[in-house]
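Project outcomes to date are best conveyed with an example. Our students and postdoctoral researchers have been running inverse folding experiments weekly, and each run begins with a structure described purely in tokens. The record below, which covers 486 residues, was selected by the lab manager from last quarter's runs and is presented without edits.
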């Protein structure tokens, strides 16, 4: 391990680690093998029952539990060590989203450089910001489509104009340009300090026009509609896109489909997660459930240009250990592993087998018609990946970009959360962070899980998870007794 010093919703307990019918190694227990009524650890005269009676008069000095809410730290003595911290809300989807917005107060960084923009759909102010973002992203996407197709027959210029039901009118381009210009002015506060050069109301762009524009945009993206644009606008479009690229840290990952991923704030293991590219569909989803706990949705920009391995999407599971919050002490595990989807990547379908690489999701699917080089168990070690990119001639990017980028993102997330977490000296916690890489190898933090799955579900996790647990014990126990311990 490398050592670094530097609210809502339930914890994202990962994969099967919180399953009530798993044994201590994370393996599924068939209750039918035990009479079908009582689990082994609940049998009064079984191994667990006898062991429990032997130690019932002793106070445990080391407590490791899957869920933090099982143990009240206020009832523990100072000497008793426990593997959870209280109020660590950065392990929730909502909590991480909110904490990272405060990053500039802790260091001169912008979380948008490593964390896809995210909004709480159950909060009106956030929901409106998301709607504005969706519309702006649609505007940029339409302009990008124009530049991409400027030399194809799908783009109609001036005298070539045609009339048809599958044609996006020139008015859509004007609306897109007006929105982008207004956004760029807002970045330098020109919309406050001087009269706005682009006023959507003066341009007669109201709610009805925006609704029309979105329909035109959907037509261009989903039906490959012909786009009507004046040739005199091409230079302006190129100039505006250049400025958007300079000022938007996530310009390269946005693509043109305007895909967003909606996540229930109180669920884990990939449950309830869905991809959308229609604004109305997302708003209908949350409005129908907003009164329930499951209705605490967050929506996050989908990385439309992910790095693919043999045309297949993957993510990276990276462990890290926190042993103190004051001073902040974080141990970054040197090993990680990759999780592959079972189907080849495409944005033409939003099926979870294509887009969600969680092992708990992919275990429900047969591997599709993929490259033979991909592993049957859908996992690689970090070293496998490093060997792969070395063969591509970019092996240096692991040490220069990917590994330090993941480490920096986690440190930023912890710094933002430091003031809220219950700081207990006789405590520690092992976390699992999930990252994706874009097609330029930049790492993007997706979420942080408490109680990451340590089950030996594949040959890779059978080896690595045991090593992680052993190394964790060495850090929190051996080094506590001897600072020079290996």
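After processing, the design step wrote out the following sequence:
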């Amino acid at each position: 391990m490398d050592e670094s010093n530097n609210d809502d919703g339930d914890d994202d307990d990962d994969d099967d680690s919180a399953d009530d019918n798993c044994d201590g190694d994370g393996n599924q227990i068939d209750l039918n093998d035990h009479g079908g009524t009582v689990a082994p650890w609940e049998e009064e005269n079984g191994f667990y029952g006898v062991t429990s009676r032997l130690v019932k008069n002793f106070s445990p000095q080391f407590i490791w539990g899957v869920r933090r809410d099982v143990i009240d730290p206020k009832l523990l003595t100072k000497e008793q060590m426990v593997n959870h911290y209280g109020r660590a809300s950065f392990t929730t989807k909502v909590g991480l989203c909110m904490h990272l917005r405060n990053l500039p107060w802790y260091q001169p960084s912008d979380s948008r450089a490593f964390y896809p923009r995210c909004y709480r759909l159950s909060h009106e102010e956030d929901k409106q910001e998301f709607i504005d973002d969706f519309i702006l992203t649609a505007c940029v996407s339409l302009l990008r489509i124009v530049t991409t197709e400027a030399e194809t027959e799908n783009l109609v210029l001036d005298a070539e104009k045609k009339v048809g039901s599958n044609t996006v009118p020139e008015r859509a381009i004007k609306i897109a340009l007006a929105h982008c210009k207004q956004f760029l002015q807002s970045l330098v506060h020109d919309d406050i300090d001087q009269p706005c050069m682009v006023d959507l109301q003066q341009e007669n762009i109201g709610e009805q026009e925006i609704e029309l524009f979105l329909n035109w945009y959907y037509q261009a993206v989903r039906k490959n509609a012909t786009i009507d644009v004046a040739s005199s606008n091409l230079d302006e479009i190129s100039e505006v896109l250049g400025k958007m690229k300079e000022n938007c840290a996530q310009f390269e990952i946005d693509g043109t489909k305007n895909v967003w991923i909606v996540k229930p704030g109180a669920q884990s293991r990939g449950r309830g997660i869905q991809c959308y590219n229609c604004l109305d569909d997302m708003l209908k989803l949350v409005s129908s459930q907003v009164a329930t706990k499951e209705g605490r949705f967050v929506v996050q920009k989908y990385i439309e240009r992910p790095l693919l391995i043999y045309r297949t999407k993957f993510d990276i599971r990276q462990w890290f250990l926190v042993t103190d919050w004051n001073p902040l002490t974080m141990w970054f595990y040197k090993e990680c592993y990759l999780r592959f989807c079972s189907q080849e990547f495409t944005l033409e379908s939003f099926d979870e087998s294509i887009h969600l690489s969680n092992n708990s999701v992919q275990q429900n699917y047969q591997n599709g018609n993929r490259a033979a080089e991909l592993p049957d168990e859908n996992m690689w070690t970090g070293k496998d990946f490093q060997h792969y990119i070395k063969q591509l001639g970019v092996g240096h990017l692991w040490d220069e970009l990917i590994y330090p980028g993941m480490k920096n993102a986690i440190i930023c997330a912890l710094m933002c959360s430091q003031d809220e977490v219950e700081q207990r000296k006789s405590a520690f916690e092992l976390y699992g962070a999930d990252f994706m890489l874009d097609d330029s190898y930049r790492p993007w933090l997706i979420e942080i899980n408490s109680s990451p799955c340590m089950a030996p579900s594949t040959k890779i996790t059978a080896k690595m998870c045991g090593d992680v647990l052993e190394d964790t014990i060495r850090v929190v126990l051996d080094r506590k007794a001897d600072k020079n311990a290996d």
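Residues 124-148 form the longest helix (25 residues). The radius of gyration is 25 Å. The training component of this project remains on track.
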